[in-house]
Specification:
Elements (H helix, E strand, L loop, with lengths): L7 E5 L2 H23 L2 E5 L5 H8 L12 E5 L1 E3 L9 H10 L19 H17 L12 E4 L24 E5 L8 E5 L1 H4 L4 E6 L5 H9 L18 E7 H4 L7
Parallel strand pairs: 1-9, 2-3, 2-5, 5-8, 8-9
Antiparallel strand pairs: 4-7, 6-7
The structure holds 6-phosphogluconic acid.
The site of 6-phosphogluconic acid (6PG) has 14 residues, from loops.
């Protein structure tokens, strides 16, 4: 019996409207986490799709958030300096961190200054473990309140690429990977499925005709969909939501 959560799929006319709706939803879930547990843990993605979403997350079109009680992590990071435009923390800096006052201790970037990518992955896992082991944590189990993920045209998510050994990882929460040549930067650090799948809520965003095959296969045709896509292996504990546009869904309604 497949215990996979059924994804809720929201289809919008364009990237702007899907980003607005996703920002409101993410804001509401972060508020709920702070209300219920006194803090919220959010893991961000990289790539180009989320730029507008992250800008809206700190705009007046989303709920006003208690950023001093929100902790930011990254579901993956490219092995480049933090100020490299290719880095995922640079995207968040341009869109979120410049706009709100997060206490420095609430910002948990991947330590890309480590000597090696393996050391960086080990240190990041230690940071995640320490965060969830703290007194107001969840007794050591990692339970991100919300992880935002994108999806590649090959069905990758975070930096988990099809047929990669990292997909078979069952113990480690963070590992180093090498992306395919067509998706540089090659060296990366990524959350593994065991860490991703203990999240309460996972939000995917996808936009554009190039994503249609994977969006339809993973989000809309879950039964017959391609199971080898890493994004199809994502299965959080409470909510799985896809915010997509008509271009990527190939229709304006779910059964279209
Ligand atoms: C990364 C992202 C990656 C991204 C997808 C989609 O570091 O590249 O975490 O998983 O979400 O590649 O990227 P686009 O939004 O640019 O299509």
């Amino acid at each position: 019996m497949d215990e996979r959560l059924r994804p809720r799929v929201e289809i919008f006319s364009d990237l702007e409207s899907l980003s607005r709706a996703a920002a409101i939803f993410i804001g509401e879930r972060l508020l709920r986490a702070v209300d219920e547990r006194g803090r919220a843990s959010l893991a961000l993605s990289g790539g180009s799709t989320p730029r507008r979403l992250y800008q809206l997350l700190v705009s007046d079109s989303a709920p006003i958030l208690p950023w001093e009680q929100i902790h930011l992590f990254w579901g993956d990071e490219r092995w480049v300096p933090a100020d490299d435009p290719e880095s995922n923390v640079a995207l968040a800096t341009e869109t979120i961190l410049r706009e709100v006052d997060l206490p420095p201790e609430n910002i948990h970037p991947v330590p890309t200054g480590s000597a090696t990518v393996e050391e960086g992955a080990l240190r990041y896992e230690e940071e995640v473990r320490a965060f969830f082991a703290s007194p107001d944590g969840t007794g050591g189990l990692p339970t991100f309140d919300l992880i935002h993920l994108g999806v590649g045209e090959d069905g990758h998510t975070a930096s988990l690429f099809p047929d990669d050994q990292a997909l078979l990882e069952t113990d480690r929460w963070v590992v180093p990977v090498t992306s395919p040549p067509w998706r540089p930067p090659r060296e990366r650090v990524t959350f593994t499925l065991p860490l991703i799948n203990t999240a309460r809520t996972i939000v995917f965003t996808a936009s554009g005709r190039a994503k249609r095959k994977v969006v339809r296969s993973i989000a809309l045709d879950q039964e017959s969909g391609e199971k080898r896509y890493p994004a199809a292996m994502v299965n959080p504990t409470e909510e799985l939501v896809w915010y997509v546009d008509e271009e990527s869904a190939g229709s304006s309604t779910i059964d279209g």
